[in-house]
Amino acid sequence: MNSRYSTAGSAHQRDVRTQLFGPNPGAAGRTPPARMSSPYEARPTASAKHNEAFLSSLESQNDDEMDSMSHKVAALKNLGVRMGSEINKSMKLNDEITNNFERGTVTLKNTFNRMVVMSQRAGISWRMWLLFFTFFFAACFYVWLM
């Protein structure tokens, strides 16, 4: 194992690997390989005046976009606030309607119970009341047609 990690024992392996890349002219006479030009070359350098004008135009575009976005965000916030107030108003109205219907139900129930008690005290049967209301509605219907 000692020879595996020693520098003297691995020199022949390094020589074999370097032979893959072509002849070794020597360490002193080595020249770096010719580099191909990149398709992503940097833009040609412009004058400082042109750069400043370009940067100022970018900043003005950025400011315009920021103003536009801030107006849009403000409009969305305003819309959200108005929607929240409308929802709260609708919930209050719904609660008021529910309370009114509950009071109306209780009132109708009490009125019906009083009418039943009154009819029992009067000694008139429900058939007589049915006959009376039928006659009453028939008379109203007759007047409505004429």
Automatic annotation (TrEMBL):
Transmembrane segments: 124-145
Main location: membrane
Listed GO CC annotations: Golgi membrane
Compositionally biased residues, Polar residues: 1-10
Keywords: Golgi apparatus, Membrane, Protein transport, Transmembrane, Transmembrane helix, Transport
Compartments where located: Endomembrane system; Golgi apparatus membrane
Domain (T-SNARE coiled-coil homology) ranges: 56-118
Mode of membrane association: Single-pass type IV membrane protein
Gene Ontology biological-process annotations: protein transport
PANTHER family in alphabetical order: GOLGI SNARE BET1-RELATED
Protein name: t-SNARE coiled-coil homology domain-containing protein
Protein's organism: Clavispora lusitaniae
Phylogenetic placement of the source organism: Eukaryota, Fungi, Dikarya, Ascomycota, Saccharomycotina
